[in-house]
Amino acid sequence: MRSLLMAIKMVSINDFKAYLGQEVLIKGWVYNFRSSGKIAFLQIRDGSGFVQAVAAKDLVDEKSWQMIEEMTIESSVEIVGTVSKHPKKEEYELQVKTLQFVQKAEEYPIGKKEHGPDFLMEHRHLWLRAPKQWAIQRVRNTIINAMYEFFNAEGFTKIDSPILTPSACEGTTELFEMDYFDIGKAYLTQSGQLYLEAAIASFGKVFDFGPVFRAEKSKTRRHLTEFWMLDAEMALFDHKMNLDLQERLIEFVVGKVLSLNQNELMLLERDIEPLKKIKAPFSRLTYKEAIEKLRQLGSDIKEGEDLGNDDETLIMRDEAKPLFVEMWPLKIKAFYMKRENDLALCADLIAPEGHGEIIGGSQREDDFSELIKRLEEKNLAREPLEWYLDLRKYGSAPHSGFGVGLERLVGWLCGVHHVRETIPFPRTLNRIYP
Ligand code: 4AD
Ligand code: MG
After folding, report:
1. Fold of the 2-103 domain
2. Tens digit of pLDDT for each residue in 348-384?
3. How far apart (Å, rounded) are the C-alpha atoms in residues 296 and 305?
4. Contact 242/402 with Cβ under 8 angstroms?
5. Which tens digit of pLDDT belongs to each residue from 314-331?
6. Which atom of ligand 1 is found nearest the CA of 419?
């Protein structure tokens, strides 16, 4: 049997079209099956796609049929068969000739019955195989590639920022801290932004992409303790240019997902009509206008307060496209933002359909003494940031940037309610396993 298999071409399910009528070998997993005793239908997944294999008792050899009768969910198998096409649809099938186990799976813990989220999260290593979970990660992959493509075309250089850092970027209450040899404390990065600000004097326009960490004690459907952020930083960009770039990025990414992930979006039952409307420009509200609007809509938010999850959902009630909320009170924003009176030249970009803030960005404070004042106001130590202050001494220039939260973006485009499904192995307040 072995030698016979060797002679037959092994193909990916994705490429079936090119092998119509031919005998091929596939290797994959049986994610579902049913049998009448005479004919069996096996749902096969090989990583490239999904296909139904049809085995008729009198057309396969005895040994193969025996294995089909012993079939278990998620067994790994090798199948030789002929590629056939649905008479009307663009769908292919495999007419089985022989089948053998690579490994016959034990009883699979994820059954057909409904499981609660805790059970599924505890089995994330297996749940990742479910078609919807596959689809979400495929969309995530498209988004990552689209962002790289966009920034490359815009003349950006990718600069890798460090994960271990001597200070906070986004405030000290959400920092993961560790002992760092004889030096003292080190922290897991919250964002590569500050390092990108150093890089722009050398490269002009830069971006990074990597995991960031927030010791957030919030148990919401939008918060992870480890998530992936793309930071972009641009020399000689002001606040408005910053927003213009962000909306073009989002339009580009949504367009890529719509054109490359039709199957995935269908599997996710994602209504794509709202996504088709995502074209720049996006509306812009000042923070002050946003607070007024929220109060009109029934929120009890007061001026000077941050928008909570519910406010972010409420303010998007009548918005079809993402919305910029700009010019926030300096007091509730990070130390590095450029000041205009007592406001910060910044914006949060809020996604429609209840997915919350997907981008946070700002023009940066480029004046040395102003930055020192801000550090003092926020009670932040100057010493670990001396290098950052240096940037304001040697050729300081206006600059701006932003950070995209990948999981929220994936959640929005996939129409997934909770961000824990948008990352392969989520880390939250109460989960570090698997
Ligand atoms: O708004 P944030 O905190 O901005 C920064 O970190 C800036 N330094 C970025 C920059 O200007 N380069 O975070 C950026 C985005 C948010 O808009 C949100 O989408 C996401 O990161 N985010 C989270 N996603 C999941 N879980 C969390 N705990 C998140 N916190 C922020
Ligand atoms: Mg933010």
Report:
1. OB fold (Dihydrolipoamide Acetyltransferase, E2P) (2.40.50)
2. 999 999 999 999 999 999 999 999 999 999 999 999 9
3. 16
4. yes
5. 999 999 999 999 999 999
6. 25
Q: What is the pTM of this model?
A: 0.96
**Nearest alpha carbon, ligand 1 atom 31:** 405
- Please name which of 119, 126, 56 lies closest in space to residue 84, comparing C-alpha atoms: 56
Nearest to 425 by CA among 120, 178, 107, 187: 120
Residue 48: its H or E element: none
3-state secondary structure of 277: coil
- Rounded to whole angstroms, the Cα distance separating 242 from 402 reads 8
Assigned token pair, 112: 């057909």
Pocket of ligand 1, beta carbon within 6 A? 169-170, 190-191, 193, 214, 216, 223-224, 227, 229, 231, 357-361, 401-403, 405, 407-408, 419
pLDDT digit string, tens, across residues 135-160: 999 999 999 999 999 999 999 999 99
**What is the CATH number that goes with domain 122-421?**
3.30.930.10
